[in-house]
Amino acid sequence: MRPLPNDSRWKNWPPGLLILSIFIALLAVAACDESQQRSMVGSCGLNLVTDSSDAAAITAVLTAEGRLVVAQEIDALMALWSEEGYVADAKHTPERTDDDQFWRGVDAIRHRYVRTVFPGAPTAVAPSDLEIAIEGDRATVTATTRIGDEVATAGDRWVLVKQGGCWVIESLTYNLEVVEP
After folding, report:
1. What is residue 122's predicted lDDT score, i.e. its pLDDT?
2. Which domains does the chain possess?
């Protein structure tokens, strides 16, 4: 077995400079990983055609949300959401907000999916009848959602925002349809 060559390049470096160089290299790797993760959020993580319209990207995000709920893929599902996102249950009283229930922030939204939505084991979640209104980097979508046999006609309002060129979900307000007693 041959001995390792004596590489004198490292011998003359002061220890502090060597440590600093390693630290800078690690930061560069971390920055690349963070940049790559950012590009995988929302519509940017859905492998859409490069020149997809905003409406097509928004529709793809909402379709993916339903598909990922059924598949119970929480990490991919959470990548569709803005960090500041929230879910609100309007409790069939759209004219009142004082009775709404909220899940604010990605941790609360994750908890809602895992503890409330997933245990119901929906086999089909598909938004339809999408009415998309885009104003700059913000879109409001009214949708009819079908979860299994349940149909909520125009019962959901989604708000999506464009961040770094990617459409992400900012909020979902559901149970907007009025139910007569």
Report:
1. 82
2. 42-174 (3.10.450.50)
